[in-house]
Amino acid sequence: MKKQVLPALAGALMTTALGVAATGGLAQAAGDRPPPAPNGIELPSNYKDWRVIAPSHRPDHGDGSIRVILGNDAAIKAARKGQTNPWPDGAVLAKLVWWDRADENWEPATVPGEFVHAEFMIKDSQKYAETGGWGYARWLGLEQKPYGEDADFAQECVACHTPVASRDYVFTTPATLP
Ligand code: HEC
User: Fold this and answer.
1) Radius of gyration over alpha carbons of the chain, in Å?
2) Which end of the chain is less enclosed by CB atoms within 10 A, N or C?
3) Measured distance CA(153)–CA(116) in Å, rounded
4) Which of 72, 76, 84, 95 to probe ligand 1 with, by most ligand atoms within 8 A of CB?
5) Please, are residues 140 and 117 in contact by the beta-carbon 8 Å criterion?
6) 11-44 pLDDT per residue, tens
């Protein structure tokens, strides 16, 4: 009996292994999500479809970088109603950063050059109580490499955002709209 069961089992395992390998390959080809940040936060899958809260420019970062701050639906709703202190649980803010580049057709215009990183603040006052109610995560470059050696990387984020603790740790003021 055993002799018959084992090859069948081995066959089943092989099929599963091949299935996993094939799915892994397909998932990567389809541009699947990169690994999570060291604190376990996953890259939000649809962030490129989020709406703009404000752009910003930092001449003090390298030779200058340009940013857009985006929000998921919950964040946009809060921003439009001016209910951003505190931001509601479920709000997620994204910041996409590019190095400055002069527009080849209009030199004085500064436009997005090389992509630097995408970073996120996820509001959940219970889950992220230790980091001021926000979960922090960053992915570097077009390859979206998770930033940070271990989960403690978030302390660096919190430290620099602490000067705006009275604004719920958020620097960005939603841009005025008509
Ligand atoms: C050296 C200071 C500094 C550090 C470190 C820092 N931030 Fe920020 N962050 C800022 C400033 C200043 C802004 C607002 C200006 C701008 O648009 O870049 C900002 C804005 C943001 C925003 C947009 C929402 C907001 O607060 O305006 C997100 C999201 C964000 N940071 C995530 C992170 C994450 C994640 C980390 C850690 C991996 C991090 N930050 C580390 C200074 C910092």
Assistant:
1) 21
2) C
3) 18
4) 95
5) yes
6) 444 444 433 433 433 444 446 789 999 999 999 9
C-alpha triplet 18, 21, 23: angle, nearest 5°: 105
Q: How far apart are CA 145 and CA 133, in angstroms?
A: 24
Cβ 171 under 6 angstroms from ligand 1: yes
Domain range summary for the chain, segments of one domain joined by +: 1-32, 47-167
The length of the chain is 178
What tokens appear for 175 in the block?
Answer: 């841009």
Cα of 22 vs centre of ligand 1, distance in Å, is 38
* Fold of the 47-167 domain: Chalcone isomerase (3.50.70)
Residues 145, 43 contacting (CB under 8 angstroms) = no
CA nearest ligand 1 atom 11, residue:
171
Distance 40 CA to ligand 1 centre (A): 19
Instruction: Tokens for 97, please give them.
Output: 């950063």
HSE-CB at 8 with a 13 A cutoff on CA atoms is 5
The pTM assigned to this predicted structure is: 0.86
